[in-house]
Design goal:
By secondary structure, this protein is mainly β. It has strands at 3-7, 10-12, 18-25, 33-39, 46-51, 57-59, 67-72, 77-82, 91-98, 104-106, 110-114. Strand 5 and strand 6 form a beta hairpin.
Length: 116
Amino acid sequence: QVQLVESGGGLVQPGGSLRLSCAASGSIFRMYAMAWYRQVPGKQRELVATITTGGSTTYADSVKGRFTISRDNAKNTVSLQMNNLRPEDTAVYYCNAKDSRLRGYWGQGTQVTVSS
């Protein structure tokens, strides 16, 4: 079982950047597919970006060209670089890990607020 802790959220103006990090512990990190989700009150949790064990990535259409997901297996971390942020990116962002049996694990979330 893996434990996940997100960091890096905060308040940023439109057009600004933030970098979220997720630190994993308790298991063999490189064996997990990783993803970032986000959620606003009253809405379903939305998939933002994924990265496989091999490093292949996918993105939601709403963030393509602005967000970049990456992983460092030596440091047991996955990051989300967010550029050109928009007010509609405001949400709680969650780190997710999925093992080979498709069992999912979640972090506690980190708030991102984009506002002037």
